[in-house]
Amino acid sequence: MNKKFTKCMIVPAVCLSILASAPGNIFAAKFNDADIHWAKDAITIWADHEVIQGFDGLFRPDDTITRAEMAVMINRIMNYQVRAENTFIDLDDNWYTDAILKLVKQGVMLGHDNQIRPEDPVTREEALVMIARALGIEENQNKSASFIDSGNISEWAVGAIQAMTEKGFINGYEDGSFRPQDKMTRACSVTVVNNAVKGFYNKPGTYKVEEEINGIVIVNSPDVILEGMTINGDLIVTPGVKEGTVTLQGTTVSGQQIVMGGNVESKPGTSNPGGDSDNGSGDGSNGGSNGGSGGSSGGGGSTIQNAAATDIIVNSAYEDETGRVTVSGKRYTIGENAFDTLEKAVAQAQTLNKKASVTLMSNLNIEQTVVLKADSLTLDGNGHTLSYRQGVKDGIQIENGQDVVLRNLSVVMNDEINKWNGSYGIQAYQSKVTLKNISVTGADGGILVNGAEVTLEGVVDVSGNEFGGIEVSKGYGVESMPELIGSAENLKNDTEEDGKPTVWIDKVSELTNAVVAISGLNEVPTDNDQTYFFLRQNLAETTANVSSQQELEAALANEDIKVINILTELTLDKTLVVNRSVIINGKDHMKKLSFDNKNAIQLVHAGEVTLENLIVEISGNKAGWQGLYALQAYGTTNVTLRNVSVTGADGGILVNGAEVTLEGVVDVSGNEFGGIEVSKGSGVESIPKLIGSAENLKNDTEEDSKPTVWIDKVSELTSAVVVVSGLNEGFTEKDQAHFYLSEVSSETYK
């Protein structure tokens, strides 16, 4: 046997197991590069169905498939009809936009942080979760997937992958691994679909198949008659049926009838022992027919897989919506177990007096503290973020709750800087709580453990809180002793400093160090006998206090230094280039960095950078456009500007293919052409984003021709890259978007 043939023979086992083909004849492959490929049969079948396409006679089966291509393939199968609103900053009008927005509406495809990443290759776990959601395959959370690298599968993907494995739709590599983060190929993606879907009918007509069909059958067209079939699996009637009818004539369906559109009419001789369709009433009653009694079911996008009342989802897109939505193969009713705000969802969960879960399906802006009082309640962020308006003191308060779980969630507070307000992102009060994969930032203290038992799992990130990460306390009137449980591996704090510990004990409570049961932390007593706990053993070696340009440059060159405190005003004779993650801080009050007629600070592919309590000033700038910026963020994905002033430049700040978050007050007054330019420069692949609110900006020199924020028209970016609430948008004669703090300026362009 030659080597080439051997390689082709083992590829099916290496990819995702190749099972029997769908019933029917296999025609010659339509693509020149698929004739001898191991996935030839699957490629041919789905090319005949016009679900997959190639280019110039090639399918490129071994190329990776992008998220956009995956969305288009799934939409051609499911024929979704309704689009979500486009809120993604990286999704413009393209050949795949319609498909992506339809999958988003159905909950099949999810974005993160206002991005959907259409051109990114899809990972194996991402692809399988999308397919499972589309096909209504219920997740199996009872046990972990049976691969040697199961621990590498993301938590949000485990249930779907386990369910797909148990059904025989996928397998792993020959060595027993799954490799969830590897890129999915075009051949593998169509093979998984072919393994799962054994009958596909996308044109009107009468269809007869003598052999039993062992798998899922999909109908996505009206006026289809399935005659004399035995379907050993689910029947999915997709939204593509619209208001039409699918007729079952003498057909047996052993699985569920999942009716997402149109009606299903059962003629004599038809049976559905595996489960009937919902009749559209929303109460879970049966509307199908067994034993050939006749009748019809469906309509309005109903499905048998009704989500339980205790299974609650939240999506801001449901505002002003009514009726039902299908998410991950389950049917939810808006106002009963699907809501547009977290407050409504939590209120509903707390009325049930049962173990319940609330899952976020989108990022949410929160106007007030979210209070959790129920036992056995799980709040699953599903990778999304709660962003609180300025003035909200606490993010989430858990009061007298037992077995409460918060997981996969980011909490972003907007607390006033340079002042202790007693603000916490999460407060657990006399409760038993598990925090798993949580991020809390922007508060005085990230988390308050107040007479509660809190267990940390996964990674709990408490970076970016003004006074430290987690406070352990026993407040006034609290009877129970607090306890924080976990290990240093469960904690992350990139802003840890001498006075900003990762964990500390409230001295007023007179607690012992035993309440912090976190292994691997370094305990440091303070001058007032208060105990601090740090992740880093030699914290002093990671912090530099600088008083000169030479010391500042040396600190930047030392990658062990994580925090640079500037102790005095500095005049620099050259541009300060930052190309790594670091915090540069004016410490207790604003410190000035002065530059003479040159670009001041440049952040170049720097990772996570925080600039805080700084004034950046350019002097000697000549009149006219010189291309001078006080601060340029280039290709840096996580920049935080907190209480920063930039002045004397052509443009105060350039956000060049970077993501910049504004906190505190960022003053862009006194720059010749305006405050902040958002751009995607030459050679920059990443989409820029500016995040914050009008309350985070100051511009005393704003004029019609000097906007506080503007978008570089050359980059062909949309206004969605400026995620700054409260600004007034106007457009120049060249359709360049300008944003103003005042209403007067924007009126000029209306």
UniProtKB/TrEMBL annotation:
Pfam families: Pectate_lyase_5, SLH
Swiss-Prot/TrEMBL keywords: Repeat, Signal
Annotated signal sequence range: 1-28
Keyword Transport: no
InterPro entries: Cell_Envelope_Struct_Comp, PbH1, Pectate_lyase_5, Pectin_lyase_fold/virulence, SLH_dom
Stretches with biased composition (Gly residues): 281-302
The organism's place on the tree of life at top rank: Bacteria
Disordered: region residues: 257-302
Residue ranges of domain SLH in the record: 26-88, 90-143, 144-207
Protein name: S-layer homology domain-containing protein
Lineage: Bacteria, Bacillati, Bacillota, Clostridia, Eubacteriales
